[in-house]
Amino acid sequence: MSLTVREIKAARDRIAPYIVRTPLLRMNNLDQFLGCEVYVKAECMQTTGSFKLRGAMNRILSLSEEELQRGIVAASSGNHGKAVAYACKKLGTKATIILPNTVAEIKENTIRQWGAEIVKCEVSERLEVAEKLCQERNAVLVPPFNDEAIMAGQGTAGLEIMEQCPELDTVIVPASGGGLIGGVATAIKSLSPGTAVFGAEPAALPRYSASLKAGKPVLVEKKSTVADALVSQIPGSVCFPYVAAHTDGFADVDEEYILRGMKLLLTEGKLLCEPSSGISIGAVLQGLIPVRQTDKVCFFISGGSVSLEQLHRLESI
Amino acid sequence: MSLTVREIKAARDRIAPYIVRTPLLRMNNLDQFLGCEVYVKAECMQTTGSFKLRGAMNRILSLSEEELQRGIVAASSGNHGKAVAYACKKLGTKATIILPNTVAEIKENTIRQWGAEIVKCEVSERLEVAEKLCQERNAVLVPPFNDEAIMAGQGTAGLEIMEQCPELDTVIVPASGGGLIGGVATAIKSLSPGTAVFGAEPAALPRYSASLKAGKPVLVEKKSTVADALVSQIPGSVCFPYVAAHTDGFADVDEEYILRGMKLLLTEGKLLCEPSSGISIGAVLQGLIPVRQTDKVCFFISGGSVSLEQLHRLESI
Q1: If you classify domain A5-50+147-316 with CATH, what class do you get?
Q2: Shortest CA gap B272–chain A (Å)
Q3: Which end of chain B is more exposed for a tag (fewer CB within 10 A), N or C?
Q4: Pairing relation of β-strands A296-301 and B24-26?
């Protein structure tokens, strides 16, 4: 565990020219629905549409010029792929992105627009396919989460949150492999040890709840979820110790509440997020994370990759 | 013309406990689509969902205690009615809201929730019906726009915009009767004479373009528009001189571009607005307002009263 707030601050300086300092929005209109003072970190407004650019950019900017020119390979359920494709276009190198067959069309199209090559496979095979391609092409693999440079990049969002509202009581972060919450929690606990950091993961894939209970990364059964960016079956081995050390608990959120969170943010907050981001609001709607009327609570809105057609299902929730 | 920035600043102090200082969002992700540096004033995040609360609250807080207790009547295509109903509930008096038969259901339901009585009529008769009700009940009419206290309240959004980004080159504001743009333009030109202020109105109801050409308020033919909050057929007589004095031009925006503006804000900006707010972005998409790559342009997003079902029509645009 060598990642500290020092590396996260270095990452911030490194990626600053390429990323947006996204707003932390005070959303008064959501207070009555969530029972607290609501803030949202709007990473759906980040360049490429999600926080993933922070980590990918930090990792790629840490490569040598020689490594960079060998080209980049990434395996991704979508947003990481977009981020790597964009970063490679900006930095003038070739990207090859491995996507699961189930990827949302809107994400795939964007990746294609940025000039990356796309290779599709089963979600369970994506890491193997990526490693094989790297060997064949002598390219550099940029992992989606299980890497300290990636975590340092994601952690820059945590630095911003605490600068934008130092008196936050609670921050709730969507979790999959743990790159985002590992980095964000490391930053927040360093700057403000009294701020609680909770993770929110799909109840269908409770990899962190199970792993924290076991004290080590545990593989959970493969199941589908509407939160299509939160599909890891096991915590990242690099991420897990940071998450275990710096978080205050996890909420395992039901599918219905994930969508309800997304719907509330859109209809009352007027902000569009992907289902995987609605999960942080869903966690409180489902009563899984304790909040009080006077608590300042930040909901981390990780991304906005969703099509208009996907909004239909919110109508019947 | 006695409204100046002094009255607008007084309004700001008066309404401050009741309204939200909404964010001015820098939306980098829209720059490539609009050809300028994009900012949006997010009044869709205002309490009651639109800027209308500013004017209504200022007008009602300017009443004597005796007037307040006689009860309030308002005629409105929706957002003004919501604002008056909310203000009356907050201040402990009765509201009666006159709605056009065509009002969106989502707006009507909200008004009912806040305990107001609702009376429906044809859109063309709404002012007469309101005046008759006031006489019968000895109540106070709060007009939607044609009033200096209303304009002063709406103008507070202009003060905020210039405080939030003093170096704006251009501000584009949706227009109907002229209460919003009259107040906002008065504030902006007082603080920053070099900032251009443009109005955006439906091409189907070009009441300001026609009136500015004629040098006086002109009644235009009644036509329908997707911008259901911008249905006035004639500028307000009180508003018109302020708009004529303090604006730099008007864009008459086609229905298709109104919806395209709304769609762009949602899909790329991740912010949900009503069609009447998409018009300011639509004006630039249609090429009706000149902007340069380095211009800082603020799009005034006036409200967010729209149902999920109404988003279907964006899919085919």
Answers
A1: alpha beta
A2: 5
A3: N
A4: unpaired
